Amino acid sequence: MLRCNQPFTEKSDAISILCARSGAPSCDAGIEVSRLTTIVLKRGAMDYATQGMVFFLFGLFCAYWAQEAKRNAWLWFFLGLFFAPLTGIVLVYKNSEDRRVKAPG
Questions:
Q1: pTM score, two decimals?
Q2: Which whole-number Å values give the CA distances from 7 to 25, 29, 35, 60, in the listed order?
């Protein structure tokens, strides 16, 4: 089984980088590469889950705004879900346009 003090070679570069990122000083710490790989994969999955939740919540926000502005809520939900940064800019522009039209005088 490969351990953290493996020398850098073409085949073990990725494994050595994972070991270096773990912060383990040497192989004496007893961190096995398979365990380290599992930890890295779990962290990556949690990052994707968090990003997915943020995009979903932004989609809900866009749908709510669309409903209040008498626009198609489903369209704005999916636009917010898949194109969050761009949809946010368009949403701010449309909102300012709506306020300008509704403003008295």
A1: 0.53
A2: 14, 17, 19, 50
